[in-house]
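We treat protein structure as text, and this decision shapes the records that our systems exchange. Below, we set out a record of this kind in full and without editing:

***
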Amino acid sequence: GGTWDLFDYPGIRSDSDALTFGYRFRPWLDHKMLAGGADIKRYIADTAREYKVIEHIRYQHEVQQLSWSSSGQRWTAMVKNYATDETLSITARFVVGATGYYDYESGYRPHFDHEAAFLGDIVHPQHWGDTNYHDKKIVIIGSGATAMTLLPAMVDENNTARARHVTMLQRTPTYVASVAGDDRALDWLSARYSPLSKQHAYTLLRARNVLMQQGIYQAARHAPKAMKALLQYGVKKQLKGSGVDIAHFTPPYNPWDERLCAVPDGDLFAALGSGRADVLTDEISHFTKTGIQLASGQHVDADVIVTATGLQLQMLGGADLHVDGVSVDIGTRMTYKAVMLDGVPNMAVLFGYTNASWTLKAD
């Protein structure tokens, strides 16, 4: 399950629509578009069983080193078996790196002055575990997809655990767009009297979403002022009556200079209008015993501080890479179509799109 097995923070979901995030060869049949983590994990597991991938998986194995021999024209992988504590070697003509792009052991976690003084809990979403946030004051540091997922989930009245108050503390605003949480077009396009099968309808709608996404991206690149105005109009409409200043959603850069965040049915804005959540744009001076002191002089009280500050980049699952005995630093190599590496033969390292669903590039 990868990401969807590792992350278990409240509200965990995809920030890409499920029709393009799902596999091309196996339709995503649920109507929920920004799918939940548990649903995505189940979809991956069901796909693996259906296509008999599971029988080829070696669990509790970690590739620690990959070495290419030009004379032998093959790769040798040194693999740690954690079930037996043994190390074994596997040889192959070709290696595909499909481990994603971040370190599973630790997220990106900047240090803040006087952290040790804080008497509450500090947690990174990557290591959520059994964090107790019920009836507590929460500060989320960050303004990306994780922060915007956590905030509405933690104040949702339908959840067993519910925070007393949540503050999203951001250094710089992010562009946000509210999208429909459900898309039932697949159902009516493949209904009883429709000539289209589920697979045909899925293919059609997947193409529709790809064109829409790329159309929005290209519009943002070629007409940034118009796209900015459109996004701001949407946010103003969502914030109407909430008392939240739109400045918190007005970045100093153009749309898609950084990744745009999508929220289903405006759940983030609804949470901000509920009185149990707010957003602050400021810089952190230091932590205190009871919260965070901001550069502006304001103090934010907190029982729990969530550092939604991103991921630690890592390729090939952290395995050491060698070509003919010489160590290779992937970060210094050019790539061809974000797949092949300069000077590294017989290897494909898969890296998805940043402005569309990751799966589309992998496909």
Summary: The first strand starts at residue 61 and ends at 69. The chain has a mean pLDDT of 95.
